[in-house]
Amino acid sequence: MKVRKAVIPAAGLGTRVLPATKSIPKEMLPIVDKPAIQYIVEEAVASGIEDILIITNRGKSPLEDHFDHTPELEERLLSSGKQALYEEMVAISKLANIQYVRQKETKGLGHAVLCAKSFVGNEPFAVLYGDDVILGKDPATAQLCRAYEQYGLGVCGIKEVPHEDIQKYSTLKVSPLQERLYKVTDMAEKPQTPQEVLSYFSILGRVVLPAKIFDILENTKPGAGNEIQLTDAMKELCLKEGMIGVDYTGTRYDMGNKLGILKAIIDVGLVHPEVKDGLKAYLKEEILPKL
Ligand code: UTP
Description:
It is globular and about 60 Å long. Strands 5-4-1-6-11-8-12-10-9 form a nine-stranded mixed sheet. A two-stranded antiparallel ribbon has the order 2-3. By secondary structure, the chain is an alpha/beta fold. Helix 3 runs antiparallel to helix 4. Bound molecules: uridine 5'-triphosphate (UTP).
């Protein structure tokens, strides 16, 4: 079955990027000139997704405004001859069919995904974590959707993480299937002892799930951090029928932490037609000599 719907959870508090995220959602933080959420919506669209649900909460109206029409701005751009910018702004409001729902309490990623139950209905759906921007030629979500279509099982986007960091992430029990594809038979969120570490593969940023995940989520008790963890629900799916892990190609930027944001801005800046030459010269002449 083709994956047509996507859910983007963007209702977290973003405490790791305070004070910037006190009044601006972290999903709206710009990478040079484009907010993180736009990269994510563009990836979904490039992966064949038609309908998108963004999970928001109080204070996230800038997200909705960003994908809306801006008649005054558009008129001004047209009348001042800024045709290309005008077209770019109009295209943003036509990117996809986007809906919004509020998560009324910040009870975790699993709880946020559960808010998408009626939007999703009985279809498989992609989840793109709102603070993970992944850049690459082949969109990460498309890679996961292909694996779903091939195996008919839930799919998680996976990457090996530095061994000393595994306790901050999830850990997966995997066995290789084909290049970059693994069968996942067990998982755990934030392993605290070496015995709990199943491998250094972790779920990062993207998953594709069957609708049956909602029945599991409805009965999932709060786990790590007293939040309803999506990993705990996916673990049940793994134990029942297994999942597929896709070690996707592309570079992932964690927009939920300060260093991730800086890396994204530098990498994108170095290829951005308007600023790349100035940024290269600045790094070479001013920054490198200080390192
Ligand atoms: P994080 O684990 O990064 O949590 O969420 P957070 O609250 O946003 O950030 P910190 O830890 O306080 O800095 C991963 C993704 O899940 C969403 C977030 O918006 C982010 O995209 N999320 C998390 C929700 O939508 N609702 C929640 O209750 C928790």
